[in-house]
Design a protein that fits this description.
The protein is mainly alpha-helical and 323 residues long. It folds into two domains: 132 residues, no CATH class; 135 residues, no CATH class. It has ten helices and eight strands. Strands 2-4-3 form a three-stranded antiparallel beta sheet. A hairpin with a 3-residue loop joins strand 7 and strand 8. Helix 6 runs parallel beside helix 8. The two termini are 53 Å apart.
Length: 323
């Protein structure tokens, strides 16, 4: 099936190349700003999210197919290198915070820091053949690339998109406000999240699990709502037990929370189904190859044993030997 495939694993292995890469990265991070500069400004939280996304994308690109815990270690190491190089670079080129939560930095330096962080990480974590890999591991790692995307990665991506939309909800065309009673608002949020869990995840066997996932949706919804209100201060309490809220924030906080949880289970189910089909197809093709190879070799052996001319040749050679 996959006998010609080589499975690799990640191993921690610093070497002299790591020292050379670290020295070169430090020099580049400090002296590049003296040659060329590209000032940029962006929201601090957005900058941090983009840094996490870059480290995650680089990890998935260079360490594709590895176990999740190994990829998390690689990503954490890469982020640590980036933060360390950024700290050293900031000693010489000061990044500033503005009153409006904007971070003023240098795009050229940020690019150099991230590239150097990737290089240093590659010299620390090396890919080596895994001699203990089983046949199933080999088959799974030779599966299509999209089947190697973890459900947690999909949920994190949805969460990041929801967070970006929440931070920029003021720029959406659907930005309008509404006023509602506080008890009605609380019941609506609970009903949307818990009800969606029971309806969208009705294939799950346990009602208690559905309820827990519904409460998880509710928690994520409140977290997104808190972030949105911290950024825009739009939600306000009114006299008489009423609340003013943005329609855009209400849709994003609840829709994002539901999609974060549901996307995890939908993608997990899809990956398990497609991976099983791939392994079965690969096993069937491997069995067919072995059967065809056996059927080709069997007639050849049978012909060599039953052929009369072959027997006469063997007898003649035996007599010649006796003489």
């Amino acid at each position: 099936m996959a006998q010609g495939k080589t499975v690799y694993k990640v191993e921690w292995g610093p070497s002299k190349g790591t020292i050379y890469a670290a020295i070169g990265s430090i020099v580049a991070s400090i002296y590049v700003p003296t040659w060329i500069q590209g000032p940029i400004s962006c929201n601090f939280l957005l900058a941090f999210v983009c840094e996490l996304l870059f480290c995650a994308a680089a990890t998935l690109f260079f360490y594709d197919g590895q176990k999740r815990i190994a990829q998390m270690k690689v990503m954490a190491t890469m982020l640590a290198f980036a933060c360390g190089l950024g700290f050293l670079s900031n000693l010489f080129l000061q990044a500033n915070f503005a009153i409006d939560n904007l971070l003023y930095s240098d795009g050229i330096v940020d690019t150099v820091i991230n590239l150097c962080a990737v290089i240093c990480t590659l010299t620390v974590y090396r890919m080596k053949p895994d001699t203990d890999a089983t046949v199933s591991d080999t088959a799974e790692k030779s599966a299509p690339a999209y089947l190697k995307i973890k459900p947690l990665s999909v949920s994190i991506s949805v969460a990041v998109v929801s967070l970006i939309l929440m931070l920029n909800s003021n720029d959406l065309h659907m930005h309008s406000s509404y006023t509602a009673n506080i008890p009605f608002f609380i019941c609506a949020v609970i009903f949307l999240n818990v009800g969606s869990s029971f309806y969208l995840l009705r294939s799950l066997p346990s009602n208690m699990l559905k309820f827990k996932l519904g409460m998880l949706m509710l928690s994520l919804s409140l977290v997104l709502g808190t972030i949105g209100n911290t950024a825009h201060h739009f939600t306000r309490f009114r006299p008489g037990g009423r609340i003013d809220m943005s329609a855009a924030e209400f849709v994003i906080m609840n829709g994002g929370a539901i999609l974060i949880v549901v996307s995890f289970f939908l993608w997990k189910r899809f990956v398990e189904s497609e991976t099983a089909k791939f392994i079965e197809a690969a096993a069937a093709s491997g069995d067919d190859r072995q059967a065809s190879a056996g059927s080709e070799s069997a007639p050849a052996n049978k012909t060599s044993k039953d052929d009369p001319s072959a027997k006469e040749t063997a007898v003649a050679s035996a007599k010649e030997t006796e003489r």
